[in-house]
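@channel sequence for tomorrow's demo:
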Amino acid sequence: MAVLFCKSTFLGQELNNMYELVSRHNISSDGKFSRKCVDLLKQNTNSERVLLVSSCTAALEMSAILLNIQPGDEIIMPSFTFVSTANAFVLRGAKIVFVDIHPNTMNINENLIEEAITNKTKAIVPVHYGGVSCEMDKILEIAKKHNLFVIEDAAQCIGAKYKGKVLGAIGDIGCYSFHETKNISCGEGGAIFIQNETFIERAEIIREKGTNRQKFFKGEVDKYTWVDIGSSYLFGELQAAYLVCQLENIEQITQRRKISWDIYYKKLEPFAANGFIDLPVVPDGCEHNAHCFYIKVKNIRVRQKIISYLRDNEISAVFHYVPLHSSPMGKICGRFSGEDKYTTIESERLLRLPLFDGISLDDINSVVEKIRDYFEIYGKKILI
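structure tokens (generated this afternoon):
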């Protein structure tokens, strides 16, 4: 493809860090670069406790263990999300209760959460789509009223805020991703943010395969042993060596992405004014991080035609999640609360355009030009 959909950030210092690490023959976990990453994430989020983990999936699975999820417990979340959001809790035996979304942000409709709550409900899992926050004040209010936990799936959210608060550090637990498609990346990896202090000590144990290894390193016990359930959720030091310089430059990376996002928005506004597309919405109080730029077209048929047209012109554009409640496992492990008014239809309209740190103005212009060409050819048929 002449214009790639995504390209992971590379600043140059990553290789120097990795060479330094390899030359010291110390590539395990929790070393110099991991500690730097944790310090930077703490500074960025003001979180009580940050642990680097192998993926956002791992962070979500740890969350389910920390909440002591049992068979029959219910977890409320949107259906428009990645499978890991649900899988982490299904692995513990939970039933997933899907709630419809707001059509403008693709985030869970907080006004529909309360009617989905039963005496089996244990937690609410808001997913901040595209780095745009859910309405966290309302969600936290509902959670407090019903004595529920709030686990933020903030996989796409590094550098994004809600009313001045960093996403991932608002609920009881927050989960980040450093997958290669994310704003800050090292191929794979993630972080778990513990705001609920009752979970801090146990999170370290779960991450270390259920052992009190961290207490041993701190000199609090003379040997470490198996004390709880857990798994190997550790983050490799090589990954940390790659990640740290991006965390050091997060503000610059986010700003560059926002500039590209704004250019897309301004250049595509005429198509929205003519009714061909809808553009992303960022509500008041939300500071997004330009994780992705998407447009919404009339329906799934139009979307597929545009994808094919762009692909024929060497441009990679892709759709996103297929709603989980419509999947084979979603039908077995979950149920939809109320009416699916927007989740399916809006997900079928959504098309993500190329956006990454370093995308050129020429590439953005090429994408917009081909979208313009498509609507000049087929626009009248679409509007009829």
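heads up for whoever presents: The chain has a mean pLDDT of 96.
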